[in-house]
Amino acid sequence: MQSLLSNLYHEFKKQYKLKLLAGEKGLSAPISWVHYVEDIGNISFIRSNELIITTGMDQKNDTSNLTNLVKSLIASPSSALIINTGKYIQANQIPQEVYDLCNQHNFPLFSMPWEVHIADISQDMCNRIFMKNYLENAITRLFSNLMEGRPLSLEQYAKLEAHSFPDSGFWHVLLISHAISTINIRNHLDSLQISHHLFLQEDSHVLIVHDCLEETIIDFLKNFLSSSKLQKAPGSVPSPTHPIIGIGEQVTSLKNLKYSYQNAVRALEHARLVGKDYFFFRDFGVRRLVYSIANPDILQHIYRESIGILKLFDMENGTQLFDTLKVYYRCNESILDTASTMFTHRNTINYRLKKIRSLLPQNMDDSEDALLLKMAFYLEDIARSSSLRSHTASRCPDNEN
Q: Above 50 in pLDDT, residue 394?
């Protein structure tokens, strides 16, 4: 996570006599580095989110040059501008148009007196940015290890605790895809005072929150999604996609963070499949049990030794036993509702159920066996719509020649 301009400003404003002149609403901008610029022709060398410092050397005879510089910086990837005033340009010589531009575009503009050496502030800020990025990357590596199930040493747990991430408490992992702005995510987290760690992993943001009530998480989701649908990257066309979020199950120890992460992956897949903005893993209900079985061989066995028998029989005999039992359970074991749903006479449903009973090794009248059969249908649904497909559906009878 890059350093925020507001943090650098408040840390160094007294030491380097920084004064915020305009663009206050842009203080939440990230800062990746500090860049010294005098010639407007060198703006093409600016990298994303850099803080620019200038002495106004090129503006001493024509302040309109300063206006043009600010316009170019606003259009560039830079985040803010410091004018080293006192020699080439005085603070009272900055055109009102510059103030207006910075306020309009939320582009922070600062002044710094001439006696302050540019090299000193540049070195201090760059060192602070480097150390913050180093620390953020180190914390991210520790969280990544936890999510992948790799054990941490006592020293590593102590490092997390030293940065307000203790092993105890309540933890959730959220996966956010198609988020245009990391800063937008962080702003909403900060506004709700949510203790968190946020980082980018492949094409999704990983958000780890600590001791956060579910009601607060829901507030964050609603506020963030509402604002994201109105935003687009500067200079880009509106994206046809918008953020989608999967929320993992709550865990009570960092040692179990991998489970919340795995849950978040499942929840994100489901949200994409059904077209929802976000989905909580807990809302899978009983299907959470299927998702929580780590051994895919167990899932395959449950399928093959239960409703997989019906699927194979249907393939060989052209019957509809599999669908009949599935609808029967969805209709709360009502023969009349099953017949109505399948547009079939109830006597036909009764005949099929009798055949099903003769084929299955489970007793449909036993509550435990009935639960296993229902879970097997959940497994079949999940296998068709998630990554479990590679472990189960690819080897189920309906995929065999």
A: no
8 Å CB contact between 233 and 247: no
Predicted confidence (pLDDT) per residue in 366-378, tens digit: 988 888 898 888 8
Q: Which two tokens stand for residue 350?
A: 């009764």
Residue 196 CA to residue 198 CA, distance in Å, equals 7
Asked if 136 contacts 60 with a C-beta cutoff of 8 angstroms, the reply is no
How many residues are given for the chain?
401
Each residue's pLDDT tens digit, 289-315? 777 776 667 677 778 889 999 999 999
Give the CA angle between residues 158, 164, 165 to the nearest 5°.
65
> What's the whole-model pTM score?
0.69
User: Alpha-carbon distance 40 to 306, whole Å?
Assistant: 73
Q: How many CB atoms lie within 10 A of CB 40?
A: 17
Alpha carbon of 284 to those of 106, 249, 347: distances in Å?
A: 43, 11, 34
Of the candidates 147, 127, 109, 162, which has an alpha carbon nearest to the alpha carbon of residue 11?
A: 127
Report angle CA 247, 225, 209 to the nearest 5 degrees: 40
Kind plus residue range of the DSSP H or E element containing 217: helix 214-228
Tokens representing residue 243 in the block: 């953020």
| pLDDT bracket for residue 395 (50, 70, 90) | very low
What the block records as the tokens of 28 is: 């939440």
The amino acid sitting at 146 is L
| 375 φ/ψ angles, rounded to the nearest 5 degrees | -65, -35
